[in-house]
Amino acid sequence: MLAFGNVADVLGLPIKEVAARSPFGLISRIENGLPIGALERVAHLLAPGDAQFKYRLIPKATYERRKAVHRLSSDEGTRLARVARVWGLAVDVWQKEEEARDFLFRPHPMIEDKRPIDVVIMSEFGAEMVVDILAGLKYGSAA
Fold first, then answer.
1. Residue 94 to residue 34: CA distance in whole angstroms
2. Which domain of life is it from (predicted)?
């Protein structure tokens, strides 16, 4: 649905870094540690007025340690890429960042009135549930 290059864009990876725009290139980039700036960028895109949102993705103490080495762990990068993927899809569906944010941060009945962003952060399975809702909105089934 969403091209790997689009996920790389949301993560703020350099356009000239062609390898990061292929599926295995992006996987390799995540495994080797995304730059801490990718977390800053995604947090700002999703919650521009909330300086604490990044700590929902990575605990504050861990964030401070990662800042020292300028890299996220593979697991943290995987979580961040998952959030970036869903954000990119939400923007694609809603066409406006503000409307995508509204969708992600508002409780949704198809996920037991949980906020989509919380479900995405929780697990890969949760992210797939939100992707299914977005796909339904984009391609015309009830959501």
1. 27
2. Bacteria
